[in-house]
From TrEMBL:
<dbReference type="InterPro" id="IPR029001">
    <property type="entry name" value="ITPase-like_fam"/>
</dbReference>
<dbReference type="GO" id="GO:0047429">
    <property type="term" value="F:nucleoside triphosphate diphosphatase activity"/>
</dbReference>
<dbReference type="Pfam" id="PF02545">
    <property type="entry name" value="Maf"/>
</dbReference>
<dbReference type="GO" id="GO:0009117">
    <property type="term" value="P:nucleotide metabolic process"/>
</dbReference>
<comment type="similarity">
    <text>Belongs to the Maf family. YhdE subfamily.</text>
</comment>
<feature type="site" description="Important for substrate specificity">
    <location>
        <position position="153"/>
    </location>
</feature>
<dbReference type="GO" id="GO:0005737">
    <property type="term" value="C:cytoplasm"/>
</dbReference>
<keyword id="KW-0546">Nucleotide metabolism</keyword>
<dbReference type="InterPro" id="IPR003697">
    <property type="entry name" value="Maf-like"/>
</dbReference>
<keyword id="KW-0378">Hydrolase</keyword>
<comment type="function">
    <text>Nucleoside triphosphate pyrophosphatase that hydrolyzes dTTP and UTP. May have a dual role in cell division arrest and in preventing the incorporation of modified nucleotides into cellular nucleic acids.</text>
</comment>
<keyword id="KW-0963">Cytoplasm</keyword>
<feature type="site" description="Important for substrate specificity">
    <location>
        <position position="11"/>
    </location>
</feature>
<feature type="active site" description="Proton acceptor">
    <location>
        <position position="70"/>
    </location>
</feature>
<protein>
    <recommendedName>
        <fullName>dTTP/UTP pyrophosphatase</fullName>
        <ecNumber>3.6.1.9</ecNumber>
    </recommendedName>
</protein>
<feature type="site" description="Important for substrate specificity">
    <location>
        <position position="71"/>
    </location>
</feature>
Amino acid sequence: MKIVLASQSPRRKELLAHIVSEFEIEPADIDETPFPDEQPVDYVRRMAEEKARTVWEQDEKEDHLVIASDTTVVLNQEIMGKPEDLAEAEFMLKKLSGETHTVYTAVVLKTKEREERILAEAHVTFYPLTDEEIKRYLETGDYADKAGAYGIQNAASVFVKEISGDYYSIVGFPIGAVNQALKTFI
């Protein structure tokens, strides 16, 4: 059985490589706009499901296992996806400053016969951030492809006061849960 990772995220690629020696990468091109009034958990699940379905349907991979994942940051029920530009990234980080937010990561494992769904959740509290700290972080460019405009595993790690839940769901790929689910497929 061939495994296909429906993501271009280097973090997901790196983490999947810890549990699977060979896999292909085939990113899904989907519209990631939330529906009006869509709840964050519903949104992140829908994104992972659409990514898995899109990659699967590109050529109906009969003997393939497609793994798709999506991560979103939520503050006060507001979905904070990937920032479109520097100004939006700065706005997001200022909102997260000194606050506790939730990070949801949904994963879908799909074969011809079945689908397995995973939802991982973590709560992250940021220290209050100064404008200078935010500016310095934004200069790294690390915000560009990350939900909530930060990558916990990189320079933004200094913003984190406390974490509750699955660290790897914050990174974007709950590797332990994915490993357990993979055992049922292989």
